[in-house]
Please model this.
Amino acid sequence: MSDIINLLPDAVANQIAAGEVVQRPASAVKELLENAIDAGADNIKLIIKDAGRALIQIIDNGRGMSPTDARMSFERHATSKIKKAEDLFDIRSMGFRGEALASIAAIAQVELKTRPHDQNMGTQILIEGSEVKEQTDIATQAGTIFSIKNLFFNTPARRNFLKSNMVETRHIQEEFNRVALMHPHIAFSFYDEDRRKSVLSTGSLKQRIVELFGKKLNTRILAVEERTDLVSISGFIGKPEIARKTRGEQYFFVNKRFIKHPYLNHAVQNAYEELIPQGYFPSYFINFDIDPKMIDVNIHPTKTEISFQDERTIYQILRASVKMVLGKFAFSPQLDFEREMSFDAAPLPANIEPKQPSIHINPDYNPFEEESNNTTPKTGSQWVPPQKTERELHNQDQWQQLYEGLDEGNAQLNIRSNLDTEPVLDVQNMNLFQIGGQYIASSVDGGLLLIDQRAAHERVLYDRFSEIMAQENPACQRKLFPEVVAFSPADLDLIRELWVEIHKLGFELKELNNNEIQILGAPPDIVNEASNRILEGLLEHYKNNQIEVRLDKKSNILLSMAKNLSVRVNQVLKPEEMNALIEALLESEEYAYSPSGQKIMAIIDINQLNSLFGPR
Ligand code: ADP
Ligand code: MG
Model:
């Protein structure tokens, strides 16, 4: 029998390897961003076209490459980051396998322009399907520009696996966020076609979090900081009040690299257990700084899973330090007006010294033994929830009728003892007034009830549209004069993707030529409003939600409609409007939280009012 084994040509081997490194445009974005960081850049710009299919461009001001290095960088296993086997155990850079560029160049047309800061001339290389087409000296800015064109041009099967532009762009944004989060000293920007998606200036980690995830976080995250010989933990966790029903902002990093770690996630979730309702997820942005020797270096470049030696101890340290931060927060005085007033942390009388919970680690603790039952307090746990003072207990008695759930730091406010009974509040007899164009307030027995009007309206609308969508044939009111609206190609794609759901809301649409949509009918409730604006708003919210939270199509549509139509801040409400809103709210089973997970009501009790005036 003749010999039949051949060595695969490099180009083929690279293409196969590429399948592992580059699954979608977002993977190439991640590799290129990490390279720019490893090159010491402090300004990195990302531009994509057609969700990264047509173009991914990364411009950095890092150290650049010599002509030889530029050429070498595309070879497989070519890296400047490790030289010998021992280096493998001390990796601090983002990449080290020397595979990314070889892989990307195997499945795209790549243009590289690069110049070291101390050289006058730079290098340009054009490479396509692993084949170098051109290498020339050119004038270019110091640093490096990678342009990846027509990704997967020679691997149509992979190209066909890609999802809609919306989804691919969301993946890119997510990779961008992960990299940008841990490098707040680097300025980043991200443009989709000509639309600016993120522009991040340099600053602290907290500023970066706020820039990426919204100003609302500014007063709603708490610093976590814990140094031990084994690991240093640092970052921020969300206050219990911003926990959400979706796993939105949960970020772990190891030595600044994003990782997923269900076991450690459990540690954080567990630390919040008595502070947030079941089914809610806390936000966190936490980095573990650890000696690279203690982690498995043999992780696959695209895998975000990682294993540590001594995971149990890290679990303990993490859980204890998150608990401590939450415990301190619950004891801090509540005269911070930026914070929403709530019950989870009533101020202590002045003569009582807050006892700070301390960290104690039990090396034998196994969190999963009790996992199925994680809302009950742990008997073996070292952290004891704050005890209520006499005064608080007395006060609680008086309030029992109006709300329950005050105990054990549970911030949820119940206005019914159970869902079948009538609400305790009688809206007809309440004297409602508006505060700051944001809150509906009413004096209730012994305190001040505050309702966030926008959150309340969101809840009411969400419930209403979810009823509409559950119907066989949703009501649709035909328009006498159908409007015609032009959309961008991307938005039109989204409308097509959501065609069925939009019709289930009660819209009737017809696609015309030239990217135009004719609105033939709309849900009866909103038929008098400009349906073009409502449709555009729906898309806008939908896209934002896609980036901020992971929701299925239907929940996202419902949430988007609710956000889209809810009253704005500063909208003056007439007394009968406030009445109608609160009445509708009290009918909802989920009257306490808006669909985006925000708290709807709070009560300031007489003690909290007293504390505003200081001792007398
Ligand atoms: P790795 O990052 O694992 O070393 P890559 O294939 O991503 O492998 O990159 C190969 C090499 O090319 C890097 O080690 C680095 O020396 C060089 N390189 C890549 N991108 C840049 C860049 N933006 N600026 C400077 N050098 C770069
Ligand atoms: Mg790399």
The first strand starts at residue 43 and ends at 49. The CA atoms of residues 105 and 267 lie 41 Å apart. Residues 333-360, 367-422 have pLDDT under 50 and may be disordered. The chain is about 30% helix and 20% strand.
